[in-house]
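We treat protein structure as text, and this decision shapes the records that our systems exchange. The tokens are whole numbers drawn from a learned vocabulary of local backbone shapes. Below, we set out a record of this kind in full and without editing:
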Amino acid sequence: MNILNPLLIIFEKKWFIFINGIFILLCSVLIMPNLFYDDYDIWWNLAYGRHFVENKTMYIDDFKFQYTPTPKKEVIDVNWLGSSILYTVYRIFGRNGLVFFKLVCQICIFLLMIMFIIKISSKLGIIHFVTIFMCSLFFIGYFDIVNQHMLTLVMFVSLTYIIFDLKSNSSKLLWQLPLIMIFWINLHHGAFLGYGYLFLIFIGEILNRRLDFRNFILFLFSFFTILFNPYGIKYPINFIQRFFSKGSMLKSNIKGVYPTYHSLFSKIELNSMSFKAWLMVIMFFILVLVMVTVWKKRRSIDYSILFSLVFLFYYAMMYRLIIAFFSVFFFFSLYYLLNIINVRISGGKCSLCALILFIVFFSSLLQKDIGQRTFLFSGDDMIKYAPEGACSFMLDEKIAGPIYNTYREGGYIIWRLYPDYKVFIDPRFYVYSKTFLRDVFSVGSKKELTEQTFEKTILGKLYEKYGFKSAIIRNERYGVLSSFLKFSKKWQLAYIGKISSVIVLRNEKIKTSSREYFTKYLSPERFNEISDPQILEPLFDIYDSFDKRSASIIMKTYEKNVRKTYFFKDRQVKLMKRMLM
């Protein structure tokens, strides 16, 4: 034990804590690279922002971008402030500016968490930074993409910081509470969770007998800020009606609102959703255990923490996007409760154990991710995974509309093609009728398609009903495009892009058979410099559907360009070779 004493003393040095803290926070950013391949929202957010800024308005007709059926009931969604902020950043600083802005939002959250620890304990330890790192694992859907979600998480952390500042016998910041809520209600509909959370804190603090008259009035005024939006009382009423409506397609087709508890019964892998679901259960019981300890020592229950814990845990289990809010609440609640019972965990032994845990966990996580993920930190990669080529083709060749598109392409189509073309579907689920959404998501739902059943399953439900003449379809392995190419006699392939391709009706006058046309729009040699397996694997499937020679060229590009550390490379090469036989 004496041998460890000098080491433990170093772990308590401020310079050592500072260096390791900065390193841990950098790792927290590293594990959240930009998943632009799955970022569906940024482009329609920018299109909305362009409308708000250029027209100097807070109102927009949500339905003007589409030609497909809208809901029977009125839909109100206030996001003018969030979209305007993103568009302004984009217009001034470009795509890299958006990525940098995302980093600024992350830093703001980390700083608020660190400032809280310094405020309540005046001593920062490595274990606090490791806890921030663990909490950041739950920020999926916020900092792995660029959209309004990251702004709404900043608002929640700011709100929580002010609440726990109040609980720490300080009310200097409470005057900011109404300002945050006014900002949030015009920023993103995530504000409604904030109002529910704030209401439980308010009731809990009344029961805790901690609110004086001034703070009571500030809380009340914060609730009235829900009316400070362009639509007034109509907005919260409309949102509540939609949120609690039965049979909502929203709850079954967007990953962010899949139930988290379903993952409790899946295979547990490092950093998987099942891992995070079980980690969240552990965090819940840690807080319960600490609250029981507080009750034993002080014979008191903090009702605001109790109510909020149950509320956030329930909704985090119901909707994946809420797990980020739960992790933030866990951080503030844990260290607040430990502080009031005078438990200090920033000593050398705790720091040593926390650092070992971090090194083991992060190294395992990084090893897994290096083999399976593409790390993207440049704003230029935003366009890399957008259907830019397909949209340029539509405009250059003046392809006839209306168009069909897979829903991930919809946001960029709104940004790039409107008003020349209107979108078929996009990630704004709330602007489409439930009947239409059922039609769309039944496409390709049957596992076995044949030439005879194809017309009835896909074209029978969509083409005959909505009359589109062309289609922009995401290149996906065994996806809709492959089915079109294999089974449809009405459609022909007009353009193959990195991310999306275009098909048109065969009666459209396009000279796809000319050598010049093939070289410009269909040739596999256009992808000789591509090294991303997420792009090359679907391209191979597309070419394999109609031209084995072209598929062979894609396979050789895959073998040459894809990095050796990619976990699935050898397996995919063997599969490609079998398919070409």
